[in-house]
Amino acid sequence: MIFCAATAAGIGAVYAADSDSKSNPMSGLVAAIASKFNLNQAEVQAVFDEQKTQMEANRQAKMAEMETKRQADFVARLGELVTSGKLTQAQVDAIKAKSVELKAARATEKIDMESMKDKTEAERQAVMEARKTKMEAERIALKQWAADNGIPEEYIPMAGRMGGGHGRGGGFGGARFGDPAPVAN
User: Fold this and answer.
1) Where are the domains positioned within the chain?
2) Count of CB atoms within 10 A of residue 73's CB?
Protein backbone atom coordinates (compact mmCIF):
# COMPACT_ATOMS: atom_id res chain seq x y z
CA MET A 1 0.00 0.00 0.00
CA ILE A 2 2.78 2.44 0.88
CA PHE A 3 4.54 1.43 -2.34
CA CYS A 4 1.39 2.28 -4.37
CA ALA A 5 1.05 5.68 -2.69
CA ALA A 6 4.73 6.46 -3.26
CA THR A 7 4.47 5.35 -6.89
CA ALA A 8 1.37 7.48 -7.43
CA ALA A 9 3.08 10.47 -5.81
CA GLY A 10 6.13 9.92 -8.01
CA ILE A 11 4.01 9.70 -11.15
CA GLY A 12 2.15 12.84 -10.11
CA ALA A 13 5.45 14.66 -9.57
CA VAL A 14 6.76 13.52 -12.96
CA TYR A 15 3.52 14.57 -14.63
CA ALA A 16 3.59 17.97 -12.91
CA ALA A 17 7.23 18.48 -13.90
CA ASP A 18 6.46 17.41 -17.46
CA SER A 19 3.46 19.74 -17.81
CA ASP A 20 5.47 22.52 -16.14
CA SER A 21 8.33 22.03 -18.61
CA LYS A 22 5.90 22.50 -21.50
CA SER A 23 4.78 25.86 -20.15
CA ASN A 24 8.29 26.81 -19.03
CA PRO A 25 11.03 25.08 -21.03
CA MET A 26 13.69 26.21 -18.52
CA SER A 27 12.03 24.50 -15.55
CA GLY A 28 14.14 21.36 -16.00
CA LEU A 29 17.32 23.43 -15.90
CA VAL A 30 16.06 25.42 -12.92
CA ALA A 31 15.28 22.19 -11.05
CA ALA A 32 18.67 20.69 -11.96
CA ILE A 33 20.60 23.75 -10.77
CA ALA A 34 18.57 23.95 -7.56
CA SER A 35 19.17 20.27 -6.88
CA LYS A 36 22.87 20.26 -7.81
CA PHE A 37 23.75 23.25 -5.64
CA ASN A 38 21.18 22.60 -2.91
CA LEU A 39 19.30 25.84 -3.61
CA ASN A 40 15.68 26.83 -3.26
CA GLN A 41 14.06 26.11 -6.63
CA ALA A 42 11.72 29.12 -6.36
CA GLU A 43 14.71 31.44 -5.83
CA VAL A 44 16.56 29.95 -8.81
CA GLN A 45 13.38 30.36 -10.89
CA ALA A 46 13.16 34.00 -9.77
CA VAL A 47 16.71 34.62 -11.05
CA PHE A 48 15.85 33.00 -14.39
CA ASP A 49 12.65 35.07 -14.64
CA GLU A 50 14.54 38.27 -13.82
CA GLN A 51 17.14 37.54 -16.48
CA LYS A 52 14.47 36.69 -19.04
CA THR A 53 12.68 39.97 -18.32
CA GLN A 54 15.92 41.93 -18.66
CA MET A 55 16.82 40.19 -21.92
CA GLU A 56 13.37 40.93 -23.35
CA ALA A 57 13.64 44.60 -22.32
CA ASN A 58 17.06 44.81 -24.00
CA ARG A 59 15.68 43.15 -27.13
CA GLN A 60 12.75 45.56 -27.26
CA ALA A 61 15.06 48.56 -26.81
CA LYS A 62 17.33 47.32 -29.60
CA MET A 63 14.33 46.77 -31.89
CA ALA A 64 13.07 50.30 -31.19
CA GLU A 65 16.54 51.71 -31.89
CA MET A 66 16.73 49.79 -35.17
CA GLU A 67 13.26 50.96 -36.19
CA THR A 68 14.19 54.58 -35.47
CA LYS A 69 17.32 54.25 -37.61
CA ARG A 70 15.41 52.48 -40.39
CA GLN A 71 12.81 55.27 -40.39
CA ALA A 72 15.52 57.98 -40.48
CA ASP A 73 17.25 56.20 -43.40
CA PHE A 74 13.90 55.92 -45.18
CA VAL A 75 13.20 59.65 -44.82
CA ALA A 76 16.77 60.48 -45.91
CA ARG A 77 16.45 58.31 -49.05
CA LEU A 78 13.18 60.00 -49.91
CA GLY A 79 14.80 63.41 -49.44
CA GLU A 80 17.63 62.42 -51.77
CA LEU A 81 15.10 61.42 -54.42
CA VAL A 82 13.45 64.85 -54.21
CA THR A 83 16.82 66.61 -54.29
CA SER A 84 17.93 64.61 -57.33
CA GLY A 85 14.64 65.36 -59.12
CA LYS A 86 13.60 61.70 -59.38
CA LEU A 87 10.44 62.31 -57.32
CA THR A 88 8.45 65.38 -56.38
CA GLN A 89 7.72 66.31 -52.78
CA ALA A 90 4.05 65.42 -53.40
CA GLN A 91 5.07 61.93 -54.56
CA VAL A 92 7.30 61.50 -51.51
CA ASP A 93 4.48 62.60 -49.24
CA ALA A 94 2.18 60.07 -50.93
CA ILE A 95 4.82 57.33 -50.44
CA LYS A 96 5.17 58.22 -46.76
CA ALA A 97 1.41 58.16 -46.21
CA LYS A 98 1.00 54.85 -48.06
CA SER A 99 3.90 53.38 -46.12
CA VAL A 100 2.24 54.21 -42.80
CA GLU A 101 -1.09 52.85 -44.06
CA LEU A 102 0.47 49.56 -45.22
CA LYS A 103 2.49 49.14 -42.04
CA ALA A 104 -0.67 49.49 -39.96
CA ALA A 105 -2.49 46.99 -42.18
CA ARG A 106 0.36 44.45 -41.88
CA ALA A 107 0.33 44.77 -38.11
CA THR A 108 -3.27 43.61 -37.96
CA GLU A 109 -2.91 40.78 -40.50
CA LYS A 110 -0.22 38.62 -39.01
CA ILE A 111 -1.01 34.94 -39.24
CA ASP A 112 -1.48 33.48 -35.81
CA MET A 113 1.04 30.65 -36.06
CA GLU A 114 -0.23 29.19 -32.82
CA SER A 115 -3.65 28.63 -34.37
CA MET A 116 -2.04 27.08 -37.46
CA LYS A 117 -0.77 24.18 -35.31
CA ASP A 118 -4.34 23.10 -34.63
CA LYS A 119 -5.28 23.05 -38.32
CA THR A 120 -5.04 20.12 -40.70
CA GLU A 121 -2.57 20.27 -43.57
CA ALA A 122 -5.44 21.05 -45.95
CA GLU A 123 -6.65 23.89 -43.71
CA ARG A 124 -3.13 25.32 -43.49
CA GLN A 125 -2.80 25.16 -47.27
CA ALA A 126 -6.15 26.93 -47.65
CA VAL A 127 -5.04 29.72 -45.29
CA MET A 128 -1.77 30.13 -47.19
CA GLU A 129 -3.54 30.13 -50.59
CA ALA A 130 -6.00 32.76 -49.37
CA ARG A 131 -3.09 34.85 -48.08
CA LYS A 132 -1.28 34.46 -51.41
CA THR A 133 -4.40 35.57 -53.32
CA LYS A 134 -4.85 38.55 -51.01
CA MET A 135 -1.20 39.57 -51.38
CA GLU A 136 -1.48 39.43 -55.17
CA ALA A 137 -4.57 41.65 -55.06
CA GLU A 138 -2.71 44.07 -52.76
CA ARG A 139 0.27 44.10 -55.14
CA ILE A 140 -2.03 44.99 -58.05
CA ALA A 141 -3.75 47.71 -55.97
CA LEU A 142 -0.37 49.14 -54.97
CA LYS A 143 0.73 49.32 -58.61
CA GLN A 144 -2.51 51.12 -59.45
CA TRP A 145 -1.97 53.52 -56.52
CA ALA A 146 1.51 54.30 -57.86
CA ALA A 147 0.17 54.92 -61.36
CA ASP A 148 -2.59 57.17 -59.96
CA ASN A 149 0.05 59.21 -58.10
CA GLY A 150 2.54 59.34 -60.99
CA ILE A 151 5.08 57.31 -59.03
CA PRO A 152 7.38 55.20 -61.21
CA GLU A 153 7.12 51.47 -60.49
CA GLU A 154 10.73 51.30 -59.37
CA TYR A 155 9.75 53.28 -56.24
CA ILE A 156 6.74 51.13 -55.29
CA PRO A 157 8.82 49.07 -52.82
CA MET A 158 9.42 52.20 -50.77
CA ALA A 159 5.72 52.42 -49.99
CA GLY A 160 5.21 48.69 -49.69
CA ARG A 161 8.16 47.92 -47.46
CA MET A 162 8.52 50.96 -45.21
CA GLY A 163 11.88 51.83 -46.65
CA GLY A 164 13.13 48.35 -47.27
CA GLY A 165 12.62 46.31 -44.15
CA HIS A 166 15.19 43.55 -44.07
CA GLY A 167 17.74 42.71 -46.68
CA ARG A 168 18.51 44.42 -49.90
CA GLY A 169 15.30 44.40 -51.81
CA GLY A 170 11.65 45.05 -51.58
CA GLY A 171 8.76 42.87 -52.51
CA PHE A 172 8.56 43.89 -56.17
CA GLY A 173 11.63 42.81 -58.10
CA GLY A 174 14.15 43.02 -55.26
CA ALA A 175 15.79 46.21 -56.50
CA ARG A 176 17.37 48.56 -54.01
CA PHE A 177 15.36 51.75 -53.63
CA GLY A 178 16.57 54.43 -55.94
CA ASP A 179 18.35 51.94 -58.21
CA PRO A 180 17.40 52.20 -61.85
CA ALA A 181 14.55 49.97 -62.94
CA PRO A 182 15.65 46.62 -64.35
CA VAL A 183 15.80 46.41 -68.11
CA ALA A 184 13.78 43.60 -69.69
CA ASN A 185 15.74 41.36 -72.07
Assistant:
1) 40-160
2) 13
